[in-house]
Amino acid sequence: MSPTDFTQKITAALATLDYGQQPIALYEPIRYIMALGGKRIRPLLTLMGAHLFTDKLDPVLRPALATEVFHNFTLLHDDIMDQAPLRRGQPTVHEKWNANVAILSGDVMVVRAYELFLDVPPTLLPTALRKFSQTAAEVCEGQQWDMDFETNEQVTIEQYMDMIRLKTAVLLGFCLELGALLGGASPEDADHLRQFGTDVGIAFQLRDDLLDVYGNAATFGKRVGGDIVSDKKTFLLLTAQAQAKAPQQAVLAQYLGQPTADAAAKVQAITEVYDQLGIRSQTEALINDYFQDALQHLERVDAPAERKALLRQWALELMARES
Amino acid sequence: MSPTDFTQKITAALATLDYGQQPIALYEPIRYIMALGGKRIRPLLTLMGAHLFTDKLDPVLRPALATEVFHNFTLLHDDIMDQAPLRRGQPTVHEKWNANVAILSGDVMVVRAYELFLDVPPTLLPTALRKFSQTAAEVCEGQQWDMDFETNEQVTIEQYMDMIRLKTAVLLGFCLELGALLGGASPEDADHLRQFGTDVGIAFQLRDDLLDVYGNAATFGKRVGGDIVSDKKTFLLLTAQAQAKAPQQAVLAQYLGQPTADAAAKVQAITEVYDQLGIRSQTEALINDYFQDALQHLERVDAPAERKALLRQWALELMARES
User: According to the UniProt entry, where is the signal peptide (chains A, B) (predicted)?
Assistant: First the structure.
């Protein structure tokens, strides 16, 4: 099995899912957002987690899809909250329909995600659902922290790290743990895989922060410096604020929280502050710490080396991305 | 056990629920809406359903609370969609906080509801969750139909009956079925109880439509004729539209879909149309049909007569209410 094989399995299975038919305004938005695509990372991780321990992946497929339906629910509701106009280059559900439709369609997606878990064998179902529910609540907590931070002037780096862990990383960790448990892994191996996924998730999010400033505009896909223009409290900004001496404090005070007439000048000035403080190398070092921790957890998992290599390769490619 | 004993059990158990602590903006709204009160009908039905077959109600308690948490989630999200300013006389969550907080707190409530089901014995858990998930999706479908109807000029009585069944009745039926299953009932008895609850729920909603027009303003609690003023497509209006002859058609055409300068005149004119067509007695007859069907289902349940009498009494009191 190669990652492409897994992804084909997932794509084929997603195409057969029946979310419901009537009323159309409830179910059409679900088909729409699920069809927008994406890398299907979460079901991929679930299948790869199971594949470490078993060749029988069909029983894992529907629970794997549950994680993708849940993830897309979070995108749908987050887009309402963030008033985002576009998702994967297409109009968001609340733009294409309206906010009420987006709220209610999202609600049904949570229900459908739980239904997909009902294919988990009864002996594992309580554990799987308990872990999923805890993870789902944590993802909501991460989203609330993220919104809280927009108006909170006293965000610490520790709080920020906890936010990205909750909002992004714990679900990746859960997917691997779920796959492992369904594949018959020991609780210890399942736990190492969860920590592998969580660590990679945190590293991935930190890299996202880094690419916003130091990415290649042509390949990153977003405007470089978008976080800087919007005063977003990223790891880079919070670290700079914590370490700035008088000259850098002056530049930060000049630009942060002010309407910006010249966005390019702001991006350049803040980037210079980052450069002076060595923020790039500090961020890269932290990313590397998490990545090495992740690999150590993977190393400890008692599974065939050539199967673990697939997960290592997946993580390497994720970290090497430029967009 | 009397209904008061059940309600005391429920109130005490609700007070001990821990929805989560941080971030406060996520969890405080949940505590707020759950503390607004209400008659706790859904967990009451769950306990009364179980009590028909067992004296051991403690294992039923947390799943019973799940239905109340889920019901309050629907109120929270419905209030956003309906832009309702008040809930049980207090500011709604989206008014007291904001819509984003209301969306996300509601999302976590769905997760917490599913978590409360995890106290169901493993052998019954898949069945309980499958039935709950189907019911939860149906409640969302009912809410979407209700919103669709606001702008749909061609709503049939059949569609309306289906909407109130989905939006209100199926959850009451599920609560009784859940209690029955947890109490050890046969599938047949659980099914009769579900139908009893669904029928009572439909009768209850029809009575709500009736009270809006023919209720006593002092005891009904809402302004009499509120549905008429807002052109709400109730059973009464849809039946009147289907049966109106030329004179009544003229009155309906004069008042429906028009801004109303004199609300009292509109209420009086439409009520006269209802009187001419005998809408009140037709509605009362239909309510009675559902109520009698409900009682027949209860009759068929194989459980002690004095315990079934509690459910019969509950239904009678619900139907006798003037508000």
Answer: none
